[in-house]
Amino acid sequence: MFRAEHGRAVAVLVRVFGDIDIAEEAVADAFTTAVQRWPAEGLPPSPAGWIITTARNRAIDRLRREASRADRHAQAALLHAHDEPIEEGPVRDERLRLIFTCCHPALGRGAQVALTLRLLGGLTTAEIARAFLVPEPTMAQRLVRAKGKIKDARIPYRLPAAADLPGRLQSVLAVVYLVFNEGYAASSGAELVRADLCAEAIRLGRQLAELMPDEPEVHGLLALMLLLESRRAARTTAAGDLVPLADQERARWDRARIAEGQAIVRDCLRRNEPGVYQIQAAINAVHSDARSAATTDWPQIVRLYDQLLACDPSPVVALNRAVAVAEVDGPRTGLALVDALDLGAYYLFHAIRADLLRRLGRDVEARTAYETAIELTDNAAERGFLRRRRQALAG
Amino acid sequence: MTQYLLSIYQPDGGPPSPEFMESVARDLHALNQELKTAGAWVFSRGLHAPGTATVVRVRDREVVTTDGPYVEGKEHIGGFWIIDAPDLDAALGWAGKAARATTLPIEVRPFQDVPEY
Fold first, then answer.
1. Is A163 part of the contact surface with chain B (CB cutoff 8 Å)?
2. With CB atoms counted within 10 Å of each terminal CB, which end of chain B scores lower, N or C?
3. Alpha helices in A290-362 (DSSP H)
């Protein structure tokens, strides 16, 4: 209830008071009251409406007290509230406005992510800090600074103009995908909190898909996250070791998530307006189709990577394409493509080279490449996996 | 309405070719006309090179004057606008046009509200 309604309530109240802090505080007040009253009095007919109305009334009471003490800020917010009618019905636009404000390009990526999780996700500052492995005061400071910039620089609480929408939407999708990836990167200590981040990203993805049904990339991102998440149980051993896609026990994949993700991918194909998230989702849908690693339709995956490279001509995409090419045309061809890339600082570049060299029987070079890859990653599960691979080399 | 400062960050060093400066001047004139027509223009001017700057500060109650810009660096503010804009998106829209006209990065900063006395 809390997570689901928090974003909606904050969005409406930011609209009413024109101030994020007042809205957050009012919503927190209303939820506290709800926790005290509902167990005894029972749920009101419309819990969401009750939260919004209670929050609004609480905030107005508080602002009146402050306004009478000649607090200019409170007076301004009160005036704003009188001009804004409260609507409980079409809150769709309010939530979208809040999303676009949180992900405004004038804010840094870290601030965008923190604001989105705080205001739309309803996560506490402590939870966000834990998930991103930063001390709580640091995260609190980041949020205060971001909210201060929204207020002082007047970042508008408004839907972007049609001409700006593609760029602004990219920033929203990047924030959600970053939240997902932060949770997906298998890490030992904070494992549980991080799985929550995936769930939160998927929840945000669902909201976006509901709010922007006509944007194919929004659906592509949701499908991509669902398909990746479907493999969570098979991705690590009981001991927390990473299991690569080819070695995963496919019976442990989550069939419901796969079915949902694949259905979205099929809808996207019918629309035929491809974008980077949709193509990545399609690539993962092909993997999900294969009963075993050996029956993977690699030529289809290479074709999808060709398309992805046309949309996003980056060396990282080229590296992933080379992996697929190696499956179709053999490791020698794959290695030639990999060696042409300028990705020396990226651990996966070395990990992939190492694997291709190993398959070509060039064990000495493979060992060196594994060692470089291990040096370049901080992720404990990845390091463990690479060490086991290196040890498995002959000699 | 909020007022915003749009600063032009200009690399130090000799001036670009006269032809280039002429085309920039034309674009800047057009931009200022557009700002004025929209009622957004408050002030704009270019500055002389940072070498013409002088810093004045108080040290032990004495006013001390030193030559040169306050911050050492490879870029300095080469000029600025003060504009009126309803919100940051509007200000960023003008800044985009300013960046195109000058071919240089533009820093956008909001002014504090003027307190009423």
1. no
2. C
3. 298-311, 315-329, 331-339, 347-359
